[in-house]
């Protein structure tokens, strides 16, 4: 089946002279407005490269965009109840945690705090639901991120890039088709609300970071926005190793770091094995979970965001366990694509056969985050042949491959030589949500903005921080 195509928002190609000028000017504009990323090849804490971006915004069907926005609060609600259904999480993850050490360790932390008694019943979710169009008229969910869902700054910042370019090129009338995007304020307000609920004005917001942060602008702008919204709130950045060395609990189970109480812990790290490299960092993760601080995410939110849980949610009758309104259930089912488990049972064997017969139709995914972990195309077959008889197979899921419509545009990257050429591209939309709630109730449930990433249609993955995709804005038609 030929792939559908999306039209460009203005006539392309641009004339060579115009293209050269606008690229050079926009790259400067981008760096000078804090839309950057640290270089992986020439890393320095003192310099920031212009983040990769798409010169002109990519067109999107307006109705589908609105649908993706509208479903966010339902998905927030769904994931909140999933995270608080102990029986469901246990049953769903029971095989996976036997073979996936990382998920197994997260699960142990969850079991430990449940058996000890939970100090802080509230969870904070700063989440992102990722979708791809699979035809011009339907969205399919790629995944739901409950930990370190980035681009709260770079999402809205992309809008300012594409608005700047359209205006520079004289297309002022087109700007109204770029939807507003207040993701940064929305997400940061969530942090602030959790800080207020904690109720100690002297307590800080702790951001757990990697040893080296490449996506520094995205993270720092959250901190700057916190200050803008309330100049009295202090945030501190620490690694899990720092917390192991410097953190403790007081007699009320409050988390104390550098003699200061922590009210909210915002994880921008701790979602891959290399970010929790030894027992020390696992101990730090447990210490945080044992504390009274409000966690973003709590351990149950983290577990609810695993790919295995995503797959289990597509089984018949499962959504009904978490959502009561038939309209909401139907809307969520619409964005699910085929997801299959690889358990040691008849259905797992059928899944394997299906993948071997038609590998190009699927993506094979482990329980990992952060991009670059999936298997695509013919490799699905080779990999499946190895996985088939290994006990590791229950750590993987198989997902139908989504084939989004193709757009054409210019991808701009720092350090690229010569004028950019037109590329065939596909996009992935992320919608941000904020949730605060506990075992019994949801206090806050909002949709707060979006981000769009676009990559070459021939590339499998599209993470911007991982080095594949580029920042983009939907141009609604
Ligand atoms: P991660 O948690 O590592 O981001 P994802 O499930 O989002 O894992 O997969 C990474 C990337 O792989 C996505 O951003 C998307 O570009 C691509 N991808 C994932 N699932 C599919 C799919 N079903 N069809 C097409 N591309 C996919
Ligand atoms: Mg993810
Ligand atoms: Mg992803």
Automatic annotation (TrEMBL):
Binding positions (ATP): 143, 307, 365-374, 376, 399-402, 428, 455, 461
Alphabetic keyword roster: ATP-binding, Glutathione biosynthesis, Ligase, Magnesium, Metal-binding, Nucleotide-binding
Annotated metabolic or biological route of this protein: Sulfur metabolism; glutathione biosynthesis; glutathione from L-cysteine and L-glutamate: step 2/2
Protein residues bound to Mg(2+): 143, 145, 369
InterPro entries, alphabetized: Glutathione_synthase, Glutathione_synthase_a-hlx, Glutathione_synthase_C_euk, Glutathione_synthase_N_euk, GSH-S_sub-bd_sf, GSH_synth_subst-bd, PreATP-grasp_dom_sf
Superkingdom of the source species: Eukaryota
Pfam family, one: GSH_synth_ATP
Binding site for substrate: 128, 219, 453
Reactions accelerated catalytically: gamma-L-glutamyl-L-cysteine + glycine + ATP = glutathione + ADP + phosphate + H(+); gamma-L-glutamyl-(2S)-2-aminobutanoate + glycine + ATP = ophthalmate + ADP + phosphate + H(+)
Cofactor binding remark: Binds 1 Mg(2+) ion per subunit.
EC number: 6.3.2.3
Glutathione synthase substrate-binding domain mapped to chain residues: 203-304
Cofactor names: Mg(2+)
GO molecular function: ATP binding; glutathione binding; glutathione synthase activity; magnesium ion binding
Family: Belongs to the eukaryotic GSH synthase family.
NCBIfam families in UniProt: glut_syn_euk
Function summary: Catalyzes the production of glutathione from gamma-glutamylcysteine and glycine in an ATP-dependent manner. Glutathione (gamma-glutamylcysteinylglycine, GSH) is the most abundant intracellular thiol in living aerobic cells and is required for numerous processes including the protection of cells against oxidative damage, amino acid transport, the detoxification of foreign compounds, the maintenance of protein sulfhydryl groups in a reduced state and acts as a cofactor for a number of enzymes. Participates in ophthalmate biosynthesis in hepatocytes.
PANTHER family noted in UniProt: GLUTATHIONE SYNTHETASE
Assembly: Homodimer.
The protein, known as: Glutathione synthetase
